[in-house]
Every structure is written in structure tokens, then in C-alpha cells.
């Protein structure tokens, strides 16, 4: 059976859930009650969309029935396609802009208000891991182009990207790094000053030793990922992996990567001739792991919402996020 055949198994359900935030910026989680699938796990309140119902109407109804509130549904956060052993669902998560009434667990479910940075410490279903990442982590992952001869210009462009709101950067310049490792190290040091200054996060392309030396994250190329059986850095330093198929995604998940980059999704100038896997295939792969995944290949800033609607953490790009 092919991966795509397997991914089509089981009934397909559309679930809507709400991110309800209180005045102290805490998010509401509900505990799934005994006797139901995934019992005991914490979830964002919501439920299945009934036939003929809009997702918004379904969410208003579910929150009224489960919590006793009248909610105003806001913008989409992410829609996560997820394959479970006996079902396949699309978890469509919306922000709740406002509500009236007092939140109560009308089904006998436990409720908890959680500060955003503590969400990851609650046991949740697989589909919720990408949701938590979407709420907390950057939706744009910049990959630097080669600096060429003009390092000052490269640094200025990096700074402009950071000033434009990019908060996660992979410092990548394989030709430059091989050509002059000493100069690359100096350039990385200077780049890191800008990254720290703007409160962003940096990862270095494929060089675990350099990541350790600078105390930053590492972005694993697929060939290196394939040699690993455990996470190469502590939890305090990011580990993201480049993946192209289900085997690599599963490996990235099993060694405890924080996220993966999957692509090319669309044709891209950096890989001329490669057609791209397309969004449908992206979804088929996305739903078989619980990792947050950035979509790579032909992506521009305007594609973040589209990427999120296919369950991506956001976009990863060189050209699409590099100024000028
Ligand atoms: N409401 C909600 N459901 C979630 C989340 N994450 C997640 O995997 N789910 C799954 C669990 C359920 O399979 C489905 C929601 O269906 P439901 O809660 O209305 O249905 P249910 O458990 O009564 O019925 P069943 O799925 O056990 O047949 O979505 C989440 O954050 N919120």
C-alpha cells in the first residue's frame, strides 16, 4: 500500500476548535472525558461540523453546548489534517475574538487556563502539536542566500529582513562556508549580533559543531538527518530538518526535531526543473506525523495563510523572504 493509499484510510471528519484567551492572556484547554476517543488528553474546545453546517456555526454551537458561552469566531489559526489509526480529520482552529457568559465545563470536562508558553507541557492529541506551534512559533523561516563577495550588503539585507518581522533564520551559505571557513565564521558572528538584537532565533545549516560553539540551533540537511538516531542538541537549542518524504519526516519526529521543512511544494528558482510535490501531497505527508512543518519551494510572504490552511507552520524561503 502506498503512503497516499494509507492516508486515505478511515472516515474523514471536519473538526472546529477555538482558541479562547482570557484577560490574563491564558488559553483555555478542556480535558477529553472518559469513554471517548483520546480520553484524558487536553484539547482546544470544539467538535465536529455537522452536515450542512458552516465551520463558524459549528464552533458557536459547540462552545455553547460544552462551555455555556456565546462566542464570536475570529480569524483562522491553522487547519491541521491528521491521520489517526481509525480516522482522518481536519482540525480547523479559529481564534475566538469575544464571548459572553461564564465558562463552565457543562459535559463534566475539566478545564484549565494555560499561559501560552506552558501549552506544550499538556498532553494533547497529535493534531494539536502543530496548533501549539502555530500559536507560539514564527510563521516565516528565512533561509539566507549565499553572501557572494559583498558581505556588508548581505548583512544589511539580513537586518532588513529581521526589521520586517522575520524571527527565525537559517544561516546557510554552503559555497561560502567551504570556500573560506574562517570568513564564514566571522560573518556568522556578525549576523548573530543582528539576530540577538532583534530577539530572533538563528540556526546554522548542517554544522552541529558550529551550533554548539555559538549556542544556536542547527538545521539538518536530509543526508545528515539520515545518520542520526537522537537529537544532536539539547532542547534549549532548535533542531529543524529538511525532509522530502514520509521516511525523513518520521525520522525527524523520532529523533525529537522541533520542526521540519518539506518541499519543494511549488516549482522554485533555486531548483529549476523540479516540479514540486504540490499542496495535496504536502497534506498527505503532513497528516502522518505530528511535527510542525514549514512549506518550502516557491513560497512568498503572501502565502502564509495558504500554507496554514494546509496545516503548515508557515513558509520557509530564500528569495521570498530576502529583501531586494
Ligand atoms: N475539539 C477538539 N477535538 C480535537 C482536538 N484535537 C484532536 O485531535 N481532536 C479530535 C478528537 C476527536 O476525534 C475529534 C473531535 O470530535 P468530538 O470531540 O466532537 O467527538 P467525540 O470525541 O465525541 O467522538 P469521537 O471522535 O470519539 O467519535 O477531533 C482539539 O484540539 N479539539
TrEMBL record:
Catalysed reaction, written as an equation: 8-oxo-GTP + H2O = 8-oxo-GMP + diphosphate + H(+); 8-oxo-dGTP + H2O = 8-oxo-dGMP + diphosphate + H(+)
Source taxon at top rank: Bacteria
Gene Ontology molecular function: hydrolase activity
Pfam family of the protein (one): NUDIX_4
EC category name: hydrolase
Key words of the record: DNA damage, DNA repair, DNA replication, Hydrolase, Magnesium, Metal-binding, Mutator protein
Residue span(s) of domain Nudix hydrolase: 10-137
Cofactor(s) listed in the protein's UniProt record: Mg(2+)
EC number from the UniProt entry: 3.6.1.55
Transmembrane segments: none
PROSITE patterns: NUDIX (PS51462), NUDIX_BOX (PS00893)
Annotated PANTHER family: 8-OXO-DGTP DIPHOSPHATASE, NUDIX HYDROLASE FAMILY PROTEIN
Family named by the database record: Belongs to the Nudix hydrolase family.
Name assigned to this protein: 8-oxo-dGTP diphosphatase
Organism: Lysobacter hankyongensis
Amino acid at each position: 500500500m502506498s503512503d497516499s493509499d494509507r492516508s486515505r484510510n478511515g472516515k474523514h471528519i471536519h473538526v472546529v476548535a477555538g482558541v479562547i484567551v482570557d484577560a490574563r492572556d491564558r488559553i483555555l484547554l478542556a480535558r477529553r472525558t472518559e469513554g471517548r476517543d483520546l480520553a484524558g488528553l487536553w484539547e482546544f474546545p470544539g467538535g465536529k461540523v455537522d452536515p450542512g453546517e458552516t465551520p463558524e456555526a459549528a464552533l458557536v454551537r459547540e462552545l455553547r453546548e460544552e462551555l455555556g458561552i456565546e462566542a464570536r469566531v475570529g480569524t483562522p489559526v491553522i487547519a491541521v489534517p491528521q491521520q489517526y489509526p481509525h480516522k482522518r480529520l481536519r482540525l480547523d482552529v479559529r481564534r475566538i475574538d469575544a464571548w459572553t457568559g461564564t465558562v463552565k465545563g457543562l459535559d463534566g470536562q475539566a478545564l484549565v487556563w494555560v499561559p501560552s508558553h506552558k501549552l506544550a507541557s499538556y498532553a494533547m492529541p497529535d493534531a494539536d502539536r502543530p496548533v501549539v506551534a502555530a500559536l507560539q512559533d514564527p510563521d516565516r523561516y528565512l533561509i539566507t542566500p549565499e553572501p557572494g563577495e559583498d558581505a556588508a550588503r548581505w548583512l544589511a539585507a539580513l537586518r532588513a529582513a529581521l526589521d520586517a518581522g522575520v524571527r527565525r533564520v537559517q544561516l546557510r551559505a554552503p559555497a561560502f562556508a567551504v570556500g573560506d571557513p574562517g570568513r564564514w565564521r566571522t560573518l556568522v558572528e556578525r549576523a548573530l549580533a543582528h539576530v540577538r538584537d532583534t530577539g530572533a532565533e538563528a540556526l546554522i545549516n548542517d554544522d552541529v559543531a558550529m551550533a554548539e560553539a555559538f549556542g544556536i540551533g542547527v538545521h539538518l540537511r536530509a543526508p545528515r538527518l539520515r545518520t542520526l538516531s537522537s537529537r544532536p542538541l539539547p532542547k534549549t537549542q532548535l533542531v529543524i530538518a529538511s525532509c522530502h518524504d514520509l521516511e525523513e519526516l518520521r525520522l525527524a519526529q523520532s529523533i525529537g526535531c522541533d520542526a521540519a521543512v518539506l518541499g519543494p511544494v511549488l516549482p522554485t528558482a533555486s531548483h529549476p526543473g523540479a516540479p514540486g510535490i504540490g499542496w495535496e501531497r504536502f497534506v498527505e505527508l503532513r497528516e502522518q506525523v505530528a511535527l510542525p512543518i514549514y512549506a518550502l519551494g516557491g513560497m512568498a510572504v503572501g502565502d502564509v495563510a495558504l500554507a496554514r490552511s494546509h496545516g503548515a507552520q508557515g513558509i520557509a524561503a530564500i528569495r521570498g523572504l530576502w529583501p531586494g
